[in-house]
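queue> holo job accepted (methionine)
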Amino acid sequence: MEQNPNRYTITAALPYTNGPVHIGHLAGVYVPADIYARYQRLQNKDVAFICGSDEHGVPITIKAKKEGITPQQVVDKYHGIIKKSFEEFGISFDNYSRTSAEIHHKTASEFFKKLYEDGKFTEEVTEQLYDEEANQFLADRYITGTCPKCGNEEAYGDQCEKCGSSLNATDLINPKSAISGNVPVLKETKHWFLPLNEYEDFLKQWILVDHKKDWKTNVYGQCKSWIDDGLRPRAVTRDLDWGIPVPVEGAEGKVLYVWFDAPIGYISSTKEWAAREGKNWEDYWKNENTKMLHFIGKDNIVFHCIIFPSMLKAEGSYILPENVPANEFLNLEGNKISTSKNWAVWLHEYLEDFPNQQDVLRYTLTANAPETKDNDFTWADFQTRNNSELVAIFGNFINRVVVLTHKYCEGVVPQPASFSEIDKQTLNELTAYPSVIASSLERYRFREAQAEMMNLARLGNKYLADEEPWKTIKTDEERTKTVMYVALQIASALAVLSEPFLPFTSEKLKLMLNVKSSAVETSLRWNDISKNTELLKTGHKINKAELLFSKIEDEQIQAQLDKLQASKKMNASTSSAQAAANKKVEPQK
Ligand code: MET
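queue> job finished
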């Protein structure tokens, strides 16, 4: 791997299409991935930022059954909602595909076939629970029964949600098919396995030795514990009628395991994009000089660090990820985010309540990103971040610079007279910001990077407050002009350095400063800030001031808290109704 690669393949976890996306998804995966992708593009790197919808798997079939529609209808609905949310929040994917796409079926199918033909799988006949009435094998989630550990009668075949134990379907007492309600029988079935045990030496060297220093400790720790526990063969096929058919003889009625096909979705999505853009997809997946990164949440670590790399290794012609900067989870007002309990802030709902305020949410989520441990989102903090930081520091600084430039300099960058010590020091401090922010971003420390960006706005604010151009204008016009010149340089640096974090704000700011948003022909480039402090030249005309942020009132926050309280009440009444219903049936047993 080169020290400073020019090509980046940046993937963000493919969201399951069985529900919309919420702030936990944004904070854990998509905002950090987007910040990183935007930052690398600003370095003039060749970036493929790749994602798409994960449209297979059992939960989607369950959702379809519940709603009385087909799985295809479920994924069509949520694919549209999710894609729109990402666009609305400025997540700048180069391609957003879906795993039901033909190109993906073909890619995943060929991948499986190659491993099959190269003898990389083992085959095993096992006994699985089967529903004789529905004529089908039952996925773990389709079996309910009594938990052998805590006695909960509603445990699932893979997990008891009451006590949290992970289970095997055959462990359940009184198992029942969720399809027909019948008692399932055991029936033999053949499956293909990836013998992860054979990849143990490779994984030990690659993760535990080669990446000991540069992977995040939460990621490294989870991998180490998987490896230390000993890896076992993992089934890569399932008896299910929703998914990609297993492309070998004797596998009728079987599909690829969703976690086998989903990560291949990154490859298919890259292919789709490359074909559209006239690029060669293999440059992004098979070239040792490309740096590949997977942005994911902590529940995806084993799949991206152990299983997918073993698949890529087995195939033989792919590069491996350079890093997997997984995040922990975001909680909401002290409780775990939960779709079923409606304990979440849904992105599409947020925009109804806070129209055009995407950057406020992005900012708050990054400021509280669960980078090293689970973290909490609170509406009170959201309000403070907006009112005391975005409005009072960033917005206030920019507003003063632009308004005063119009007031004192006819909207034109003035000619500075001689610089005072403070001016020189301020311009000098400014040049350090690009590399300070870059160094945090290169180490996946997004909170720290964003805080540094805000420090630059603070520097600007303090400079204006100390130099008081509104006072000097009465006595020394030259001094005022010099101060405005310096302040304008800070404002223009902010326009560039804020782009990864606050893309909508950066765009507006560039418009106000009358610079091209692509920043190609102007001097407004990330790295130029460190070299050349004359970012906006004397004589350059700027546009009128527009408000970047506006105050969020207590009532708006209260409305959000009320919404959450309503969910809480609703949950309490459903669970007491459920408890009452359970009581009623008990005497009959
Ligand atoms: N759909 C998975 C999840 O949401 C991620 C798949 S990434 C290949 O956890």
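queue> The first helix runs from residue 23 to 42.
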